[in-house]
From TrEMBL:
Residues 30-210 form the NodB homology domain. It comes from Desulfolithobacter dissulfuricans. InterPro entries: Glyco_hydro/deAcase_b/a-brl, NODB_dom, Polysacc_deacetylase_ArnD. GO terms for molecular function: hydrolase activity, acting on carbon-nitrogen (but not peptide) bonds. Gene3D superfamilies: Glycoside hydrolase/deacetylase (3.20.20.370). It comes from the Bacteria. One of its GO terms (biological process) is carbohydrate metabolic process. This is Polysaccharide deacetylase family sporulation protein PdaB.
Amino acid sequence: MFSPGYIKNTIKSLIPDSFLVHRLPSSAGNAVILTFDDGPDEKITPRILEQLEEYNVHAVFFVIGEKVAMFPNIFEMIVQRGHTIGNHTYSHHYKKIPSFKVYLRDIIRCQQIIEEKTGNKPILYRPPAGFISPITLLLARTQGLKTVLWSNEGGEWGVNKQDTASTIGNRLINTLQPRDIVLLHDNNEKVPFIMEMILPALKNRSIDLQHGVHAICP
């Protein structure tokens, strides 16, 4: 009997990279991408940006359109620091999946506000809670978007939300591998403390935190 995790990973491996990415390709070498969901946040995002700058990290921020509208100055900080912007929908429907019409409209609204602020449309998309189906992948693709999931995560938002930042940080240090796409959240107060732990550890391992994004976003 196959485990649910095995089945899920097998299905993901069968989907073309032009539609879905959950790990960097072998050509990425020892690169790792840090990705941040659910921002921008007026308190936590600036702290994370300072940490990324200190360690010369190029990250991907999957932003919520409503929060871009709410905190335009913080969003501008992300853009000015040269990080890649991804679409995380406008409203972040999480507990209840909306109709496909509403789902598509939410993706488009997020595309529009990001383009309005930056002059460019994102090409990377992450669905709320990582929920995917053939339809959601196709809807994202109609907007020129590649869906990006993750191969490792802090879990501070859900599966490990009861754990301390120290526990999460140590777990990431022990499990992170080259080519991982790491999920964290820049609206969670634990994340700056997690970053304090993992950034020097990854630097000591000579992990490339600068160029991995080019492997999925050429």
